[in-house]
Amino acid sequence: MKFAKEMWFWITPCIIADIAWHIYSLPTKYNPWAYFFVITFPTVSGILLLASFFRDPERTPHPNHVPGKTILCPADGNLIAIEEEAGDTAIYVEMHYNNVHVTRAHLSGTVTKVIRKGGRHHWVYFFKKTVGSESQAIRKNARAIIQMRDLEGNYFEYYLICGAFFRRAKPFVKPGDQITEGQRIGVIAFGSTVRITLPGTHYEIMSQIGDKVKAGHTIICKRIL
């Protein structure tokens, strides 16, 4: 299993603390088996669970995907909203703790700007079918914004929206980078929400609100013009 390198930012302090604690407590009078089940097993399990949040499996597009025609999902999680915004189509995917947190490009194009924007940290999780772009979290939470231009010269955006507790969203790309559909584009620690835009509104929706979706595999919609 492949892991995102951002994993080390989180687990390195935990590993150091765990090793230090074991060294400090080695001269213990407790039963070795009790020590293992009470101290060693829970701490090691916790570190492995933490690392699992940053797993980064390889993905292949759905067999029905047609490059430039169908739009791949940008993130693992649940599709929570598809809306028209300022003449474009906006799609929201809610990520959870058990999802892969590495996100992927939904369109090919060129990165024009990467913006880090501070903000609030409202709850993001469990919106499902009831909350779209009007939620406090979607409108006000801190985020990283990747602005891009597609192969036809149309501009679109990619939002990595932070959650309530773990406030770290990291783009993998920089201005000038050429992006292809399904390419890894960023990571949000422990899940949150990804918002993408599509140029224009001429799309046929292929997934339903509430569906479980996978980054770089699930087809969200397709162009009809």
Q: Indicate the mean pLDDT.
A: 83
Proportion of beta-strand residues = 25-35%
Radius of gyration: 20 Å
Helix content: 10-25%
Question: What is the N-to-C order of secondary-structure elements (H for helix, E for strand)?
Answer: HHEEEEEHEEEEEEEEE
User: Kindly, what is the distance between the CA atoms of the first and last residues, rounded to a whole number of angstroms?
Assistant: 39 Å
Q: Count up the helices.
A: 3
For the largest beta-sheet, the strand count, sense and barrel status come to: 8 strands, antiparallel
Low-confidence stretches: 126-131
What's the total count of β strands? 14
Structural class: alpha+beta
For the biggest β-sheet, the strand order reads 9-5-6-7-11-3-2-13
Assign an overall shape. elongated
Summarize the helices and strands and which ones pair or pack:
Blueprint: H1 7-25, H2 32-52, E1 70-72, E2 77-85, E3 88-94, E4 102-104, E5 109-117, H3 136-140, E6 143-150, E7 155-161, E8 169-171, E9 178-179, E10 184-188, E11 193-198, E12 203-205, E13 212-213, E14 219-223
Antiparallel strand pairs: 1-14, 2-3, 2-13, 3-11, 4-10, 5-6, 5-9, 6-7, 7-11, 8-10, 12-14
